[in-house]
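sry for the spam today, last one i promise. struct tokens for design, 90 residues
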């Protein structure tokens, strides 16, 4: 169930990004790459490698810090994604 909830939150982020024009292309690309990486981790049957987990975690932390001040409307969605990943042990 937790994976489905997280996938729903990823979809919410995707929809929010389509509606937001205030995000520069570099940040938009980082978000897209991050969501693709998270989706790939969720679809894996085996436990993800520690390198994959660390990479996703680092990217997410970086974006959370950036969005906290620059894009607070999307920060809540990113925070829910981080919480969902933590609940799944990712």
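last one done:
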């Amino acid at each position: 169930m937790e994976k489905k909830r997280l996938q729903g939150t990823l979809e919410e982020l995707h929809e929010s990004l389509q509606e937001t024009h205030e995000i520069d292309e570099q940040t938009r690309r980082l978000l897209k790459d991050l969501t693709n990486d998270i989706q790939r981790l969720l679809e894996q049957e085996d436990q993800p490698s520690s390198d994959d987990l660390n990479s996703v975690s680092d990217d997410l932390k970086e974006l959370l810090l950036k969005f906290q001040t620059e894009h607070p409307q999307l920060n809540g969605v990113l925070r829910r994604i981080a919480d969902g990943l933590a609940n799944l042990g990712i």
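The two ends are 15 Å apart (CA to CA). ok im logging off now
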